[in-house]
Design a protein that fits this description.
Blueprint (H helix, E strand, L loop, with lengths): L4 H18 L4 H10 L1 H6 L8 H20 L6
């Protein structure tokens, strides 16, 4: 149920896990696929697609991730 915050978060986490597996734990590609779709990443030759939104999204998320990762918690990168 996308309207239930907990279920929405769990679904997003499961989808990100799927993308990480699909792109062999390449976090940059998984994030690009989360934003633009896995098909777009595959069509771009397993690179970040040349979409302005996606090219801005990936480094933005990585900046936040690195900040939180340095504070504590499990690490996937």
């Amino acid at each position: 149920n996308i309207l239930d915050p907990l279920e929405n978060l769990q679904g997003g986490a499961r989808y990100l896990r799927f993308l990480l597996e699909l792109f062999k734990n390449n976090l940059d590609l998984a994030l690009a696929a989360y934003n633009a779709g896995e098909g777009a990443v595959m069509q771009a030759g397993n690179k970040i697609p040349n979409y302005a939104e996606t090219k801005a999204y990936v480094p933005s998320v990585l900046t936040h991730y690195e900040r939180y990762r340095s504070q504590s918690g499990p690490q996937i990168r």
